[in-house]
Amino acid sequence: MQVPSRSDLPIILLDEVHLTLASAAGAVNVLRGATLNVAAGETVGLIGPSGSGKSTLMMVTGGLERPSRGRVLVAGTDLGALDEDALARFRRDTIGIVFQSFHLIPTMTALENVAIPLELAGRADAFEAARAGLAAVGLAHRVLHYPGQLSGGEQQRVALARAFAAGPKLLLADEPTGNLDTATGRHVIDLLFELRAAHGTTLLLITHDRDLARRCDRVVHMEDGRIVESADAEVTAFGRR
User: Fold this and answer.
1) Nearest to 33 by CA among 47, 51, 18
2) Domains defined along the chain, listed by start
3) pLDDT (tens digit per residue) in 48-104
4) Are 204 and 58 spatial neighbours (Cβ–Cβ below 8 Å)?
5) Are 106 and 158 in contact (CB under 8 A)?
6) What's the CA gap between 163 and 201, in Å, rounded?
7) Distance CA 21, CA 29 (A)
8) CA distance linking residue 101 with residue 177, whole number of Å
9) DSSP secondary structure string, 155-211?
10) Coil, helix or strand for 20?
């Protein structure tokens, strides 16, 4: 695949990405030449069976896992050229991540959890911005509560506030409703799409739910560590053709 010039680069460009991991049973080829382009502002739903490599693809895209072979460019930056410190700074400034299991720090309040990335970025208004972020997800009254005092839906809303706090160019969401009941999960997803639209953020959403994936502009299907299909999603309230 010919890599376009920097000015023409999509926000995500994965070029023949391979990842092989060691296991007790021998080497496991998790990614087998995955190639994907995502345009700035696009929403993409990534689906596929368990074990197909979806979460690993997200980890590679977010710089949380380094590929064995291939190129990973995000917002025009080659992640393979960055050392661990530079990669952490790039991720902090460019990428928001929402996991299925929330990943909040249990000894910190909701306010402190959201303020952390802003403090690390040197923002003088970290706590003010964190309060605004929590208000945007309907948790202005819960800022001083700890994760253990919050419901699952509230914890995921804190995670959303944290992910959007620094105004990321790209949001990676890995089964964000996986630990929630249906009604709560629907509310969290509605909120995620509302925040994404308000910020103009590119979204890569990993899900096993085809109906949820179709809320995105495009649905990408993954099998056996490869992208096997990519097509425009159906028109929805949050999609386009």
Assistant:
1) 18
2) 6-232 (3.40.50.300)
3) 999 999 999 999 999 999 999 999 999 999 999 999 999 999 999 999 999 999 999
4) yes
5) no
6) 11
7) 7
8) 9
9) HHHHHHHHHHTT--SEEEEESTTTTS-HHHHHHHHHHHHHHHHHHT-EEEEE-S-HH
10) strand
